[in-house]
UniProtKB/TrEMBL annotation:
SUPFAM superfamilies: Composite domain of metallo-dependent hydrolases, Metallo-dependent hydrolases. It comes from Duganella sacchari. Keywords: Signal. PANTHER family: ALPHA-D-RIBOSE 1-METHYLPHOSPHONATE 5-TRIPHOSPHATE DIPHOSPHATASE. This is Imidazolonepropionase. Pfam families: Amidohydro_1 (PF01979). Residues 1-20 form the signal peptide. Gene3D superfamilies: Amidohydrolase (1.20.58.520), Urease, subunit C, domain 1 (2.30.40.10). InterPro entries: Amidohydro-rel, Metal-dep_hydrolase_composite, Metal_Hydrolase, Metallo-dep_Hydrolase.
Length: 487
Protein backbone atom coordinates (compact mmCIF):
# COMPACT_ATOMS: atom_id res chain seq x y z
CA UNK A 1 0.00 0.00 0.00
CA UNK A 2 2.89 2.37 0.78
CA UNK A 3 4.04 2.35 -2.84
CA UNK A 4 0.61 2.68 -4.43
CA UNK A 5 0.38 5.65 -6.80
CA UNK A 6 -2.72 7.77 -6.41
CA UNK A 7 -4.41 9.89 -9.03
CA UNK A 8 -3.07 12.97 -7.25
CA UNK A 9 0.50 11.67 -7.51
CA UNK A 10 0.00 10.70 -11.13
CA UNK A 11 -1.26 14.17 -11.93
CA UNK A 12 1.86 15.68 -10.37
CA UNK A 13 4.19 13.29 -12.18
CA UNK A 14 2.52 13.98 -15.52
CA UNK A 15 2.42 17.74 -15.07
CA UNK A 16 6.12 17.79 -14.17
CA UNK A 17 7.21 15.59 -17.05
CA UNK A 18 5.74 17.18 -20.14
CA UNK A 19 5.92 20.61 -21.70
CA UNK A 20 2.26 21.14 -22.43
CA UNK A 21 2.37 24.93 -22.79
CA UNK A 22 4.72 27.61 -24.03
CA UNK A 23 6.38 29.87 -21.45
CA UNK A 24 4.45 33.02 -20.60
CA UNK A 25 5.87 36.51 -21.08
CA UNK A 26 6.69 36.55 -17.35
CA UNK A 27 8.72 33.37 -17.60
CA UNK A 28 10.48 34.51 -20.79
CA UNK A 29 11.97 37.45 -18.88
CA UNK A 30 14.29 34.97 -17.22
CA UNK A 31 15.14 32.61 -20.08
CA UNK A 32 18.59 32.51 -21.62
CA UNK A 33 17.94 29.51 -23.86
CA UNK A 34 14.70 28.04 -25.18
CA UNK A 35 15.81 26.20 -28.31
CA UNK A 36 14.48 22.64 -28.79
CA UNK A 37 18.00 21.31 -29.51
CA UNK A 38 20.90 22.46 -27.32
CA UNK A 39 24.46 21.14 -27.14
CA UNK A 40 26.44 21.83 -23.97
CA UNK A 41 30.01 21.32 -25.18
CA UNK A 42 33.38 20.94 -23.43
CA UNK A 43 31.66 20.56 -20.07
CA UNK A 44 32.58 18.50 -17.02
CA UNK A 45 29.70 16.11 -16.24
CA UNK A 46 29.04 15.27 -12.59
CA UNK A 47 26.14 12.89 -13.04
CA UNK A 48 24.77 12.73 -9.47
CA UNK A 49 25.31 8.99 -8.99
CA UNK A 50 28.54 9.45 -7.08
CA UNK A 51 30.63 8.33 -10.06
CA UNK A 52 33.78 10.32 -10.92
CA UNK A 53 33.33 13.38 -13.09
CA UNK A 54 33.56 12.95 -16.88
CA UNK A 55 35.78 15.57 -18.47
CA UNK A 56 35.29 17.38 -21.78
CA UNK A 57 31.84 16.04 -22.69
CA UNK A 58 28.93 17.23 -24.80
CA UNK A 59 25.47 16.94 -23.29
CA UNK A 60 22.75 17.09 -25.93
CA UNK A 61 19.32 18.37 -24.87
CA UNK A 62 16.38 17.65 -27.16
CA UNK A 63 12.77 18.70 -26.49
CA UNK A 64 13.25 19.00 -22.75
CA UNK A 65 15.16 15.78 -22.19
CA UNK A 66 18.77 14.63 -22.16
CA UNK A 67 19.27 13.05 -25.58
CA UNK A 68 22.90 11.96 -25.40
CA UNK A 69 26.23 12.41 -23.61
CA UNK A 70 29.23 12.17 -25.94
CA UNK A 71 32.88 13.03 -26.21
CA UNK A 72 33.24 16.75 -26.94
CA UNK A 73 35.17 15.91 -30.11
CA UNK A 74 31.93 14.58 -31.63
CA UNK A 75 30.33 17.32 -33.71
CA UNK A 76 26.92 18.48 -32.41
CA UNK A 77 23.92 17.81 -34.66
CA UNK A 78 23.12 20.33 -37.34
CA UNK A 79 20.81 23.06 -36.07
CA UNK A 80 21.75 22.69 -32.41
CA UNK A 81 22.28 25.75 -30.23
CA UNK A 82 25.90 25.22 -29.17
CA UNK A 83 27.00 26.53 -25.76
CA UNK A 84 30.73 26.28 -25.09
CA UNK A 85 31.12 25.48 -21.37
CA UNK A 86 34.88 25.18 -21.13
CA UNK A 87 35.86 25.47 -17.45
CA UNK A 88 32.31 24.72 -16.36
CA UNK A 89 30.66 21.75 -14.67
CA UNK A 90 27.13 20.45 -15.01
CA UNK A 91 25.29 18.67 -12.19
CA UNK A 92 21.70 17.44 -11.93
CA UNK A 93 19.10 19.92 -10.75
CA UNK A 94 18.97 19.94 -6.95
CA UNK A 95 16.08 18.08 -5.34
CA UNK A 96 15.28 20.06 -2.17
CA UNK A 97 13.67 17.85 0.47
CA UNK A 98 13.14 20.32 3.31
CA UNK A 99 12.14 23.47 1.48
CA UNK A 100 9.29 25.89 2.07
CA UNK A 101 7.36 28.65 0.34
CA UNK A 102 7.37 30.34 3.75
CA UNK A 103 10.06 31.97 5.86
CA UNK A 104 10.66 33.34 9.35
CA UNK A 105 10.23 36.96 8.32
CA UNK A 106 10.79 38.38 11.81
CA UNK A 107 10.64 37.18 15.39
CA UNK A 108 8.11 39.01 17.52
CA UNK A 109 9.49 39.64 21.01
CA UNK A 110 8.26 41.53 24.07
CA UNK A 111 10.29 43.96 26.19
CA UNK A 112 11.95 41.06 27.99
CA UNK A 113 13.11 39.43 24.76
CA UNK A 114 10.58 36.61 24.87
CA UNK A 115 8.04 35.56 22.25
CA UNK A 116 4.63 36.50 23.68
CA UNK A 117 1.33 34.69 22.99
CA UNK A 118 0.12 33.55 20.54
CA UNK A 119 3.78 32.64 19.87
CA UNK A 120 5.60 32.19 16.55
CA UNK A 121 4.45 33.22 13.07
CA UNK A 122 5.89 32.59 9.64
CA UNK A 123 5.22 34.46 6.40
CA UNK A 124 4.30 32.97 3.03
CA UNK A 125 6.77 34.18 0.40
CA UNK A 126 5.26 32.48 -2.62
CA UNK A 127 6.55 35.17 -5.01
CA UNK A 128 10.21 35.30 -4.01
CA UNK A 129 10.88 31.72 -2.85
CA UNK A 130 10.27 29.91 -6.17
CA UNK A 131 12.56 32.34 -8.00
CA UNK A 132 15.32 32.03 -5.41
CA UNK A 133 15.16 28.24 -5.44
CA UNK A 134 15.32 28.05 -9.22
CA UNK A 135 18.16 30.59 -9.37
CA UNK A 136 20.19 28.41 -6.99
CA UNK A 137 19.69 25.29 -9.09
CA UNK A 138 16.74 23.70 -7.27
CA UNK A 139 14.58 22.25 -10.04
CA UNK A 140 12.39 19.99 -7.84
CA UNK A 141 11.45 20.51 -4.19
CA UNK A 142 9.15 19.31 -1.45
CA UNK A 143 7.46 22.07 0.56
CA UNK A 144 7.83 19.91 3.72
CA UNK A 145 5.01 21.49 5.66
CA UNK A 146 2.67 24.25 4.62
CA UNK A 147 0.95 27.11 6.43
CA UNK A 148 -0.96 28.12 3.29
CA UNK A 149 -1.57 24.86 1.41
CA UNK A 150 -3.99 26.41 -1.07
CA UNK A 151 -1.38 29.03 -1.94
CA UNK A 152 1.24 26.33 -2.45
CA UNK A 153 -1.11 24.26 -4.63
CA UNK A 154 -1.97 27.28 -6.76
CA UNK A 155 1.69 28.23 -7.11
CA UNK A 156 2.40 24.68 -8.30
CA UNK A 157 -0.35 24.97 -10.92
CA UNK A 158 1.00 28.29 -12.18
CA UNK A 159 4.56 26.96 -12.38
CA UNK A 160 3.42 23.85 -14.25
CA UNK A 161 1.42 26.04 -16.64
CA UNK A 162 4.56 28.15 -17.35
CA UNK A 163 2.89 31.27 -15.97
CA UNK A 164 5.60 31.89 -13.37
CA UNK A 165 9.17 30.60 -12.88
CA UNK A 166 9.96 28.06 -10.19
CA UNK A 167 10.85 24.44 -9.45
CA UNK A 168 8.55 21.45 -9.76
CA UNK A 169 6.73 21.19 -6.43
CA UNK A 170 5.79 18.27 -4.23
CA UNK A 171 3.23 20.13 -2.10
CA UNK A 172 3.05 18.89 1.48
CA UNK A 173 -0.27 19.30 3.25
CA UNK A 174 -0.83 21.43 6.35
CA UNK A 175 1.21 20.45 9.39
CA UNK A 176 -0.22 17.57 11.41
CA UNK A 177 0.33 18.97 14.90
CA UNK A 178 -0.82 18.13 18.43
CA UNK A 179 -2.08 20.15 21.36
CA UNK A 180 -0.43 23.32 22.70
CA UNK A 181 1.31 24.08 19.42
CA UNK A 182 3.90 26.86 19.38
CA UNK A 183 2.64 27.91 15.94
CA UNK A 184 -0.94 29.26 15.78
CA UNK A 185 -0.92 28.72 12.01
CA UNK A 186 -0.95 24.93 12.44
CA UNK A 187 -3.87 22.54 12.81
CA UNK A 188 -4.33 20.90 16.22
CA UNK A 189 -5.09 17.18 15.91
CA UNK A 190 -5.84 15.27 19.11
CA UNK A 191 -8.21 12.59 17.79
CA UNK A 192 -7.33 9.79 15.39
CA UNK A 193 -10.49 10.25 13.33
CA UNK A 194 -9.69 13.94 12.89
CA UNK A 195 -6.26 12.98 11.59
CA UNK A 196 -7.72 10.51 9.09
CA UNK A 197 -10.26 13.03 7.83
CA UNK A 198 -7.57 15.71 7.50
CA UNK A 199 -5.37 13.40 5.44
CA UNK A 200 -8.30 12.33 3.26
CA UNK A 201 -9.37 15.91 2.60
CA UNK A 202 -5.95 17.25 1.62
CA UNK A 203 -5.09 14.19 -0.45
CA UNK A 204 -8.25 14.97 -2.37
CA UNK A 205 -7.16 18.58 -2.80
CA UNK A 206 -3.95 17.47 -4.49
CA UNK A 207 -1.16 17.50 -1.90
CA UNK A 208 1.45 14.82 -2.53
CA UNK A 209 2.94 14.32 0.95
CA UNK A 210 2.36 15.09 4.63
CA UNK A 211 4.42 16.28 7.58
CA UNK A 212 3.80 15.60 11.27
CA UNK A 213 5.00 18.10 13.86
CA UNK A 214 6.45 18.18 17.36
CA UNK A 215 3.38 17.83 19.60
CA UNK A 216 1.55 15.08 17.71
CA UNK A 217 0.82 11.98 19.80
CA UNK A 218 1.56 8.37 18.90
CA UNK A 219 -2.08 7.34 18.23
CA UNK A 220 -2.73 10.38 16.04
CA UNK A 221 0.54 9.94 14.15
CA UNK A 222 -0.22 6.26 13.60
CA UNK A 223 -3.62 7.13 12.16
CA UNK A 224 -2.17 9.82 9.89
CA UNK A 225 0.58 7.54 8.57
CA UNK A 226 -1.84 4.70 7.96
CA UNK A 227 -4.30 6.95 6.13
CA UNK A 228 -1.61 8.61 4.03
CA UNK A 229 -0.26 5.22 2.98
CA UNK A 230 -3.75 4.23 1.86
CA UNK A 231 -3.52 7.13 -0.59
CA UNK A 232 -0.02 6.07 -1.65
CA UNK A 233 1.46 9.19 -0.02
CA UNK A 234 4.45 9.45 2.30
CA UNK A 235 4.72 11.08 5.72
CA UNK A 236 7.72 12.84 7.18
CA UNK A 237 8.04 14.34 10.63
CA UNK A 238 9.75 16.96 12.72
CA UNK A 239 8.93 15.18 15.95
CA UNK A 240 9.47 15.44 19.70
CA UNK A 241 6.52 13.99 21.67
CA UNK A 242 6.99 10.88 19.55
CA UNK A 243 10.62 9.77 19.44
CA UNK A 244 12.50 8.33 16.48
CA UNK A 245 12.17 4.68 17.39
CA UNK A 246 8.45 5.03 18.08
CA UNK A 247 7.92 6.83 14.76
CA UNK A 248 9.84 4.13 12.87
CA UNK A 249 7.68 1.45 14.45
CA UNK A 250 4.56 3.36 13.36
CA UNK A 251 5.72 3.27 9.73
CA UNK A 252 6.81 6.88 9.17
CA UNK A 253 8.77 7.29 5.93
CA UNK A 254 11.14 10.14 6.76
CA UNK A 255 12.40 12.13 9.75
CA UNK A 256 13.48 15.76 9.47
CA UNK A 257 16.59 17.48 10.82
CA UNK A 258 18.30 14.44 12.31
CA UNK A 259 18.04 13.49 15.97
CA UNK A 260 20.42 15.77 17.86
CA UNK A 261 17.91 18.63 17.97
CA UNK A 262 14.66 16.64 17.73
CA UNK A 263 14.81 13.05 19.05
CA UNK A 264 13.58 12.93 22.66
CA UNK A 265 14.13 9.23 23.38
CA UNK A 266 17.14 9.78 25.64
CA UNK A 267 15.51 12.45 27.85
CA UNK A 268 15.30 10.92 31.32
CA UNK A 269 11.84 10.63 32.87
CA UNK A 270 9.93 12.08 29.94
CA UNK A 271 6.18 11.43 29.92
CA UNK A 272 4.50 9.53 27.10
CA UNK A 273 3.32 11.76 24.23
CA UNK A 274 4.84 14.85 25.82
CA UNK A 275 7.49 16.98 24.15
CA UNK A 276 10.33 17.89 26.55
CA UNK A 277 11.97 21.29 26.38
CA UNK A 278 14.33 21.66 23.44
CA UNK A 279 17.17 22.28 25.89
CA UNK A 280 16.50 18.89 27.49
CA UNK A 281 16.59 17.15 24.11
CA UNK A 282 19.88 18.81 23.23
CA UNK A 283 21.34 18.02 26.65
CA UNK A 284 20.43 14.35 26.28
CA UNK A 285 22.42 14.20 23.04
CA UNK A 286 25.34 16.12 24.50
CA UNK A 287 25.80 13.17 26.85
CA UNK A 288 26.03 10.60 24.05
CA UNK A 289 28.67 9.70 21.54
CA UNK A 290 27.63 8.71 18.01
CA UNK A 291 29.68 5.53 18.31
CA UNK A 292 27.93 4.45 21.52
CA UNK A 293 25.88 1.23 21.45
CA UNK A 294 22.58 3.04 22.05
CA UNK A 295 23.06 5.50 19.18
CA UNK A 296 24.30 2.76 16.88
CA UNK A 297 21.22 0.72 17.78
CA UNK A 298 19.02 3.70 16.85
CA UNK A 299 20.75 3.99 13.48
CA UNK A 300 20.32 0.27 12.83
CA UNK A 301 16.63 0.50 13.71
CA UNK A 302 16.04 3.40 11.32
CA UNK A 303 17.88 1.65 8.49
CA UNK A 304 15.95 -1.58 9.11
CA UNK A 305 12.64 0.31 8.87
CA UNK A 306 13.74 2.15 5.68
CA UNK A 307 13.29 5.54 7.36
CA UNK A 308 15.06 8.33 5.48
CA UNK A 309 16.66 11.25 7.32
CA UNK A 310 16.64 14.79 5.93
CA UNK A 311 19.77 16.82 6.65
CA UNK A 312 18.98 20.48 7.41
CA UNK A 313 22.38 21.64 8.59
CA UNK A 314 22.03 25.23 7.28
CA UNK A 315 19.17 26.15 9.63
CA UNK A 316 21.20 24.94 12.62
CA UNK A 317 24.37 26.68 11.48
CA UNK A 318 22.47 29.98 11.49
CA UNK A 319 22.10 29.65 15.28
CA UNK A 320 25.87 29.56 15.81
CA UNK A 321 26.84 33.24 16.24
CA UNK A 322 30.52 32.56 15.55
CA UNK A 323 29.75 31.16 12.09
CA UNK A 324 29.96 33.56 9.10
CA UNK A 325 27.29 36.18 8.54
CA UNK A 326 25.06 36.09 5.48
CA UNK A 327 26.66 37.39 2.31
CA UNK A 328 25.98 40.92 1.11
CA UNK A 329 23.98 39.48 -1.77
CA UNK A 330 21.69 37.61 0.62
CA UNK A 331 21.27 40.64 2.88
CA UNK A 332 20.28 42.73 -0.15
CA UNK A 333 17.54 40.23 -0.99
CA UNK A 334 16.00 40.43 2.49
CA UNK A 335 13.45 42.96 3.62
CA UNK A 336 14.86 45.45 6.16
CA UNK A 337 12.69 43.98 8.92
CA UNK A 338 13.81 40.42 8.16
CA UNK A 339 17.46 41.42 8.18
CA UNK A 340 17.06 43.36 11.42
CA UNK A 341 15.34 40.42 13.10
CA UNK A 342 18.03 37.96 12.07
CA UNK A 343 20.93 40.20 13.12
CA UNK A 344 19.21 40.89 16.44
CA UNK A 345 18.79 37.15 17.06
CA UNK A 346 22.50 36.57 16.40
CA UNK A 347 23.47 39.45 18.66
CA UNK A 348 21.31 38.17 21.53
CA UNK A 349 22.73 34.67 21.17
CA UNK A 350 26.31 35.93 21.28
CA UNK A 351 25.74 37.51 24.70
CA UNK A 352 24.83 34.22 26.37
CA UNK A 353 27.94 32.67 27.97
CA UNK A 354 28.88 29.36 26.36
CA UNK A 355 26.02 29.44 23.86
CA UNK A 356 28.13 29.62 20.71
CA UNK A 357 30.43 26.77 21.76
CA UNK A 358 27.50 24.58 22.74
CA UNK A 359 25.64 25.16 19.46
CA UNK A 360 28.81 24.49 17.48
CA UNK A 361 29.31 21.20 19.31
CA UNK A 362 25.71 20.14 18.70
CA UNK A 363 26.04 21.00 15.00
CA UNK A 364 29.20 18.89 14.76
CA UNK A 365 27.44 16.00 16.53
CA UNK A 366 24.55 16.16 14.08
CA UNK A 367 27.06 16.07 11.23
CA UNK A 368 28.67 12.99 12.77
CA UNK A 369 25.30 11.28 13.12
CA UNK A 370 24.42 11.89 9.46
CA UNK A 371 27.75 10.50 8.30
CA UNK A 372 27.32 7.40 10.48
CA UNK A 373 23.75 6.94 9.28
CA UNK A 374 24.82 6.90 5.63
CA UNK A 375 27.79 4.64 6.31
CA UNK A 376 25.31 2.19 7.90
CA UNK A 377 23.21 2.14 4.74
CA UNK A 378 20.68 4.89 5.53
CA UNK A 379 19.12 7.17 2.91
CA UNK A 380 20.07 10.79 3.62
CA UNK A 381 18.21 13.65 1.90
CA UNK A 382 18.96 17.37 2.04
CA UNK A 383 17.17 20.70 2.37
CA UNK A 384 17.84 24.05 4.05
CA UNK A 385 14.61 24.71 6.06
CA UNK A 386 14.33 28.51 5.56
CA UNK A 387 12.87 29.19 9.02
CA UNK A 388 14.70 29.31 12.36
CA UNK A 389 16.13 32.75 13.10
CA UNK A 390 15.82 33.93 9.50
CA UNK A 391 19.42 33.21 8.56
CA UNK A 392 18.65 30.54 5.96
CA UNK A 393 17.35 31.86 2.65
CA UNK A 394 15.64 29.75 -0.02
CA UNK A 395 18.13 28.49 -2.58
CA UNK A 396 21.19 29.89 -0.87
CA UNK A 397 20.50 27.49 1.97
CA UNK A 398 20.38 24.56 -0.46
CA UNK A 399 23.83 25.47 -1.74
CA UNK A 400 25.17 25.90 1.78
CA UNK A 401 23.79 22.49 2.70
CA UNK A 402 26.15 20.77 0.26
CA UNK A 403 29.12 22.62 1.71
CA UNK A 404 28.17 21.56 5.23
CA UNK A 405 27.79 17.94 4.15
CA UNK A 406 31.38 18.07 2.91
CA UNK A 407 32.41 19.61 6.24
CA UNK A 408 30.64 16.66 7.89
CA UNK A 409 32.98 14.23 6.12
CA UNK A 410 31.17 13.36 2.89
CA UNK A 411 33.07 13.68 -0.36
CA UNK A 412 31.79 16.35 -2.77
CA UNK A 413 30.49 13.59 -5.04
CA UNK A 414 28.57 12.07 -2.13
CA UNK A 415 27.16 15.45 -1.13
CA UNK A 416 25.93 16.09 -4.67
CA UNK A 417 24.26 12.68 -4.76
CA UNK A 418 22.53 13.36 -1.43
CA UNK A 419 21.17 16.66 -2.76
CA UNK A 420 20.04 15.22 -6.11
CA UNK A 421 19.57 11.52 -6.74
CA UNK A 422 18.71 10.60 -3.14
CA UNK A 423 15.76 12.99 -3.10
CA UNK A 424 14.57 11.71 -6.46
CA UNK A 425 14.85 8.15 -5.21
CA UNK A 426 12.83 8.91 -2.08
CA UNK A 427 10.06 10.41 -4.20
CA UNK A 428 10.12 7.49 -6.63
CA UNK A 429 11.22 9.76 -9.48
CA UNK A 430 14.81 8.57 -9.95
CA UNK A 431 13.95 7.22 -13.41
CA UNK A 432 13.28 10.76 -14.65
CA UNK A 433 15.25 13.21 -12.48
CA UNK A 434 18.13 13.29 -9.99
CA UNK A 435 20.99 12.26 -12.27
CA UNK A 436 22.34 13.00 -15.72
CA UNK A 437 21.59 10.22 -18.19
CA UNK A 438 19.98 9.92 -21.64
CA UNK A 439 16.19 9.91 -21.49
CA UNK A 440 15.95 11.84 -18.24
CA UNK A 441 14.51 15.34 -17.91
CA UNK A 442 16.91 18.10 -18.83
CA UNK A 443 17.04 19.46 -15.27
CA UNK A 444 20.65 20.62 -15.00
CA UNK A 445 22.79 23.23 -13.26
CA UNK A 446 25.78 24.79 -15.01
CA UNK A 447 28.48 25.89 -12.56
CA UNK A 448 31.65 27.86 -13.10
CA UNK A 449 34.46 25.76 -11.66
CA UNK A 450 34.64 22.23 -10.32
CA UNK A 451 32.65 21.43 -7.15
CA UNK A 452 34.30 17.99 -6.90
CA UNK A 453 37.54 19.80 -6.05
CA UNK A 454 36.11 22.92 -4.41
CA UNK A 455 32.57 22.46 -3.10
CA UNK A 456 32.11 26.23 -2.73
CA UNK A 457 31.84 26.32 -6.54
CA UNK A 458 28.28 25.04 -6.00
CA UNK A 459 27.42 28.72 -5.54
CA UNK A 460 28.73 29.72 -8.99
CA UNK A 461 25.51 29.05 -10.88
CA UNK A 462 25.54 30.41 -14.43
CA UNK A 463 22.57 28.62 -16.07
CA UNK A 464 19.76 26.51 -14.65
CA UNK A 465 18.01 24.17 -17.07
CA UNK A 466 14.57 22.95 -16.12
CA UNK A 467 12.86 20.70 -18.68
CA UNK A 468 15.38 21.95 -21.22
CA UNK A 469 14.72 25.67 -20.71
CA UNK A 470 17.79 27.62 -19.61
CA UNK A 471 17.13 30.24 -16.90
CA UNK A 472 19.32 33.19 -15.92
CA UNK A 473 19.95 33.04 -12.15
CA UNK A 474 21.12 36.64 -11.91
CA UNK A 475 17.83 37.93 -13.35
CA UNK A 476 15.78 35.68 -11.09
CA UNK A 477 17.59 36.93 -7.99
CA UNK A 478 17.42 40.57 -9.06
CA UNK A 479 13.64 40.30 -9.45
CA UNK A 480 13.15 39.72 -5.70
CA UNK A 481 15.67 42.13 -4.25
CA UNK A 482 14.47 43.40 -0.86
CA UNK A 483 11.41 41.11 -0.89
CA UNK A 484 12.42 38.06 1.17
CA UNK A 485 10.19 38.17 4.22
CA UNK A 486 7.49 40.28 2.54
CA UNK A 487 6.21 38.39 -0.52
Amino acid sequence: MRHQITLACMAWFISSSVLAQAPSAEVRKFLQYDQPLIALTHVRVIDGTGAPAQEDRTVLLRDGRIDAITDARTAPPKGAQVIDLTGRSVIPGLVGMHNHLMYTASINRDDEGRTPPPSMFVTEIAFSAPRLYLAAGVTTMRTTGSVEPYTDLNIRRQIDAFKIPGPHLDVTGPYLEGKDTFFPQMAVLTETEHARKTVDFWAGEGVTSFKAYVKISQPVLAAAVDQAHKHGLKVTGHLCAVDYRQAAALGIDNLEHGPVFTDSEFVAGRAADECPASSAVAASWEQREIGSPEVQALIADLVAHNVAITSTLPVFEAFVPTRPLLSRQQMALMSPESLRSHLEARALASTTPGYAARQEALLKKEMAFELAFVRAGGLLLAGPDPTGNGGTLPGFGDQRGLQLLVEAGFTPLEAIRIATLNGARYMGRHDSIGSIAPGKHADLVVLKGDPTRRIADIENVEIVFKDGYGYDPARLNASVRGMVGIR
